[in-house]
Amino acid sequence: MKLSLALIATGLSGASAFSTVNNNGPRSLTQLNERQPIMAGNWKMNPATEADALNLANGFTALLGEMEDTCAMDDVEGCTEVVLFPPFPFISKVKDIVVKKGIDVGAQQVYYEDKGAFTGSVAASMVKSVGCEYVLCGHSERRTLFSDSDVNINSKVKKVLEFGMRPILCIGETQEEYDLGITKEVCAMQVSKDLSGVSKKDMENVVIAYEPVWAI
Fold first, then answer.
1. Cα–Cα nearest to 139, from 118, 109, 178
2. Which of 34, 96, 116, 148 has a CA positioned 20 to 30 A from the CA of residue 78?
3. CA separation for the pair 174, 215 (Å, rounded)
4. What angle do CA 63, 17, 111 make, to 5 degrees?
5. Catalytic one among 81, 133, 173, 211?
6. Could you tell me the sign of the dihedral formed by the alpha carbons of 91, 92, 97, 99, in that order?
7. pLDDT tens digits along 19-69
8. What is the pLDDT of residues 145-195, one digit of tens each?
9. What is the rounded end-to-end Cα distance, in angstroms, of the chain?
10. Do 64 and 102 touch, CB atoms closer than 8 A?
11. CA 77 → CA 5, 81, 191, 201, distances in Å?
């Protein structure tokens, strides 16, 4: 799979657009068509109960079943891959429902250590064991609310790759940075720091998602 283009990400609390960052001008349609599009839905801290999560998953698969151009990861050339990011307690049962329609599941975040005294944290091996194919890294809410630094994000990206999953690196500028006209500089810095040490080969399994903080 080539470096993927994450086109759309929708959450229960709103919607935002994902796209790749390119400082050398717009890519041609030919270049974009070489990539498998991804439609990724981040549920954030929603819904409130497991029953609600399963109802949502069933409803989503029924809706998606009416679409002919969706598929599982690397399944069919020219189709759109669909990935859901439920909260940790719901991942396994949601996967049992959506996998029948070729929908993948991912984790909203992981810690970069394998195990230990890190209360409240989740390891990459844990989410891998319940069927996650993707992990969000560097989401703006993790950066701002939980002080997730670029150093930590870089460690998480590498850990996700180590366990054979695909990181979706979230980048984007704040309203203040947008107003200052430094969007490209901010995004370039995040990409440089967060992907430091990631090999060209590993980049085949990395998704870069542009999500301006001010647009959420």
1. 109
2. 96
3. 9
4. 95
5. 211
6. positive
7. 333 334 444 444 445 678 899 999 999 999 999 999 999 999 998 876 666
8. 999 999 999 999 999 999 999 999 999 999 999 999 999 999 999 999 999
9. 29
10. no
11. 14, 10, 27, 21
Q: Is 156 left (phi over 0), alpha (psi -120 to 50) or beta?
A: alpha
Confidence (pTM)? 0.83
Token pair in block for residue 8: 């759309």
The tokens describing 111, both together, are: 């810690």
Angle value at C-alpha 134, between 130 and 136, nearest 5 degrees: 115
Which is catalytic among the residues 68, 139, 141, 185? 139
d(CA 19, CA 21): 7
Residue 211 is a catalytic residue:
yes
Tell how strand 4-11 and strand 207-210 pair up: parallel
Residue 133 among the catalytic residues: no
| Rounded Cα distance, 106 and 192, in Å | 24
- Please choose, from the candidates 210, 215, 162, the residue with its C-alpha nearest in 3D space to the C-alpha of residue 38: 210
Say if CB 97 and CB 61 are below 8 A apart. Answer: yes
